[in-house]
Amino acid sequence: DWEDLNSLMSTNAQAKEWFSQHNCLEPISSEARTIQTQIDAWATGDSISMYSADGLICKNIEQSSGRQCHDYEIQFCCPEINYECPGLMSQWYDRDNPSGTG
Q1: How far lies 57's CA from each of 83, 84, 88, in Å?
Q2: Are 97 and 71 in contact (CB under 8 A)?
Q3: What share of residues in the chain are helix, strand, coil (percent, to 5)?
Q4: pLDDT tens for residues 2-26?
């Protein structure tokens, strides 16, 4: 499952518009969670790569015992003032499903 900002903006016109309007082309952090249960990505047991400003990558080939990655959604923190992060939080986005290589 690849939930990264560049892929999101190239495949989701609504997201691209939102990030452009909010001057958030370089987020300062991100959060990821599973879609079905809304469990934090770090608590799932999946082997993931999380890049604070770029997003999450979960590759099926890197999971133990032939498991498949969970389906994740991500939100980004944009550089403005907000209560939860030191910036404006985007909505949750799901760009990809954990099929094929992840």
Answers
A1: 27, 24, 23
A2: yes
A3: 25, 30, 45
A4: 898 888 889 999 999 988 888 888 8
